[in-house]
Amino acid sequence: MANVIDITGLPPERVVFTPSPLAELGAALHALSEPGHHPGLHGWVTATNAALKTDLADRLCEADILWRSSRSDILLPARPGATLAEDLDELDKIGDERFVAAAFEITCSPRYTRPTPSPLVDAGERARIREMAAARGPRQAAFTDRMLTDPDGLRVWLRRLFEDCEEAFFGDIWRRVGIQLAADARHKTELLRRKGLAETLSATSRALWLEDPQDRSGNSGNSGNSSNGSTRIVLDKLAQGRTTAFADPADPGVTFLPTSFGWPHLVFAHAQGWRPVLQYPVASPELPAPAALELVQQRLEALGHPMRMQLCRTLSRGPHSTGELAEAFGITSPEVSRHIATLKKAGLIQTRRRGRYVLHQLDLQVVARLGSDFLEGVLR
Question: Which pTM was predicted?
Answer without folding.
Answer: 0.76
